[in-house]
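Mods, move this if it's the wrong board.
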Amino acid sequence: MYAVVESGGKQYKVTVGQTVDVELLGVEEGGTIEFDRILMVAGDGDVRIGRPTVEGAKVSATVLEHGRAPKVITFKYQPKKRYRRKLGHRQGYTRLRIDDITV
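Not the wrong board. Structure tokens:
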């Protein structure tokens, strides 16, 4: 059984026992979180597609850790103008373990 979950403006296909990295959430490590924006649930030959979400479907997950992705470097310059700009960015994420999918 799998589900498509919306979190942080992105969609994730998740199964029970899977580890997934989502946008940074405000839940402490070791805590649990329940997603109620389930876009699709499939399993056992049955597919339920939400319009826009599946009614009564929930996915529960445990927060394993918070972290930061590798640094992404952005470099802008204009030739012959003495303009150079170097920027770095590290996106925060939350690592989750999917515990249960209920319909």
